[in-house]
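Repro:
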Amino acid sequence: MNKFRISNSGTGRLFKSGLLEALTRTNFLFPVIFYYAASAGCLIYAHYALNQVSWFNWLLLPCGMLIFTLVEYLLHRFVFHFRAETPKEQKIKYTIHGVHHAFPKDKDRLVMPPVISIGVAILFWILFYLFTGDYVWYLFSGFLAGYSTYLIIHYSVHRYRSPRNFLKILWRHHSLHHYYSDEVAFSVSFPVWDWIFGTLPTRKSKELLKE
């Protein structure tokens, strides 16, 4: 039996407007399928339209996925958990991420709304293009696949019991972020970043999730 149980459930309303409130709720399968499809589309376009097939191009795919894991860590740590001091800042922080901590089992708020994530994705495409030119399609394909993979991991951690294999570490790691301290364990899909940047949970905290 786990000594440490996740108990808080339910949901919370963010906006009085029914339309705005609806836009904050997303079935996680939609962005997962959409971004995997977009990833495949980028790869197909690069392969047939650019005619630049080489081992280097294919190497950009895992590079894109790895870059996503770093972006995930940095956004989670420095944007979603920015230091909110004024009531207005606290409200903004609650709206963009705090509600997820208040209701971590709310299945409709386990993914970023597409109206926001699509805009963010376009900004990253532009950034990558500035550095890689036409190679962007291979790198961005891996980046989008990394995002969809992250969504599956994050949803599974919050909705299902941890598996009895090596993947269990992902469940424990993210649960410590939610139920021990939100100042540690910022990475969901690649906890190595927490080790690199010194935000791993303490050994004592890990004892809370041992069986």
